[in-house]
Amino acid sequence: MATIYDIAKIAQVSPMTVSRVINNKGNVSISTQQKVEAAIAKLHYVPNDIARSLQSKHMKMLALLVTDIMNPFFTQIARGAEDMAHASGYQLMLCNTDEDIKKEAAYIKALISKRVDGAVIVPTGDYSTESLHSLQQANIPFTLLDRRIDGIDCESVVGDSEKGLQLLIDHLVQQGHERIGFINAPMHISTARLRFNSYEASLASHGIALNPQYISESHFQPGKSARQPSFLSLPENTRPTAIIAANNFIADILMQDLHKHGLSVPEDMAVACFDEFQLPTYVQPFFTTVAQPAYAMGQQAAKYTLEQVEDKAASSRRQDVMDVTLHIRASTVV
C-alpha cells in the first residue's frame, strides 16, 4: 500500500508538501500540486481515514438509524440526510432497526465503538431511553427524527402529527362521514400518542363522540402479521364508514383485510393515511394521505447533527415541527 513517503519520492517533494496537497492546506504552487496529484494517481493512493481522524478528531462519519428502510417515508429521509452529509464532506452509515429495541441497542453500541462523529436517530419508542443515554455519555451528538423521547435532552425534527390527523378528520367529515375509525401505532411511540390525542380532539370539534369500538392498534414491524381490526366485523349499519391508518404500511394491510371482507374502497369504506406510497411515475396515486416532508426532515436532522459535531449548534435545543400537506385522492372520494 502506497504511503505519502512513496508519493513524495516520485514527486520529488517533501512528505509535508504531500500532506498539504492531500489536506488542501498551506501554500503549494500549482506546478507542485500537479506533480503530487500525478504521483497519487500513479500509485492509486487512498488516504488513511483512521490516521487522518486521529489528527482532526473526526471520522467524518455520521450514522442514520431508521426503523424500516423499505418504507418510502424513511427512504426519502435517508436520501435527505445523505445529501446533507455528503455536501458537508461526511459519509453516512445506514442502520435499519426493524422497530426492534434489541437491534437498536446493538447498533448504538457499535456506533460508540466505532466512534462515529454523530447520529440521526428514529427511535423505536420510549424504551430507547437507555441506549440514547449511553450515546450522550459517550459524547456523541445526535438528533431525534420523526419521534421524540421524554427525558432526552437533544435536538429533534418531527412532522406535525396533530395537524395531519386534524386535516384528515376535517376532510372525512366534509365527505359526510361521522363513523370514523382509527388504526394507530403502539402507544409507546410519541407520534402515536399525538395522533390519538388529535383524533379525539378533532372528532370532538365536529361534535362527534369517541367510540372505543372504532379504535384499533397495529404495528410498524415489516414482515410481521397484524391483527385484523375488530370493527370490520361490526354490522354494516354500525361499523365505520371511513378509516384513518397511522401510516402507509398499516393502510396497505388494511386494504388486504377489506378485500377479504368483500368491501370496496371508497364505495363501502373510505381509507386515508399518513405518508405517501412509492409508485412508478406513470401510476396515478390512489390513497388520500397526509404527506410529511421526509426529504427535508432528513436534511434538517443531519444539519443539526453536523452543527453539533462541528461546535456550531445554537445555544438552545431546537425542536422543529415541520408542516404537513393533505393530498385528497380517490380512496376517500366517491
UniProtKB/TrEMBL annotation:
Record has GTP-binding as a keyword: no
SUPFAM superfamilies with a match to the protein in the record: lambda repressor-like DNA-binding domains, Periplasmic binding protein-like I
Keywords: DNA-binding, Transcription, Transcription regulation
InterPro entries named in the record: HTH_LacI (IPR000843), LacI/GalR-like_sensor (IPR046335), Lambda_DNA-bd_dom_sf (IPR010982), Peripla_BP_I (IPR028082)
Residue ranges occupied by any HTH lacI-type domain in the UniProt entry: 2-56
Protein's UniProt keywords contain Transcription regulation: yes
GO MF terms, alphabetically ordered: DNA-binding transcription factor activity; transcription cis-regulatory region binding
Designated name of the protein: LacI family transcriptional regulator
Naturally occurring in which organism (per UniProt): Aureibacillus halotolerans
